[in-house]
Amino acid sequence: MIESDKIEVVDFSGEDFSKFSFPCSVLLFFVFILAILNITLMILFPSSLIITFISLGIIAVFVLYFYFVTTKNLGKIRRFSISSEEIEISIPDIPTFQIFWAEFDKIEIKVISFNFKPFLKYSFHFIKDKSEKTFSFSLWDFPKKKADYILVLTKNYAGKLGKVFTAVKEKEISGIYQVENLNIKILKEF
Hints:
Layout: E1 7-11, H1 24-44, H2 49-71, E2 78-82, E3 86-90, E4 97-100, E5 106-113, E6 120-128, E7 131-138, H3 144-160, E8 164-173, E9 176-181
Parallel strand pairs: 5-8
Antiparallel strand pairs: 1-2, 2-3, 3-4, 5-6, 6-7, 8-9
Helix pairs in contact: 1-2
Transmembrane segments: 20-43, 49-69
Keywords: Membrane, Transmembrane, Transmembrane helix
């Protein structure tokens, strides 16, 4: 069944963020130290085969590291679907989250800010009376522009369907926990 008002946000950019990575400067410093050590050993033991094998081992470690980083988790599809009937979020390695608009009266969204990757975590709370369903995703799952568009779509559909919508941004600054309202624009076509 095709829904006429269904909007999907699809992302296929899994290679943008690797959970197993180092800053480039750390790797270059490490390579520099190993190169100096290797050159020193080659000067001290010029005809030794062990130094050649150590050099090849160092090269192999870095080749395997970069191979692992560049081929791990390449482009697994992520999808956020919203319509006047349901919200569905599909992220790799997590069961698909699906909720119908009739199952909740209020949506609370918390955007939690970190000083490290993934920098932002989006936590959706769907509340009806005393029951609550939650789903979270971060910038590992959707890039910032698409995550912000998901917030805009959710707010606009909530307004269209008469649901209570609140969104806040939480951040810790110098030991002080700051909470502020999140300004999300309203689309004209709604």
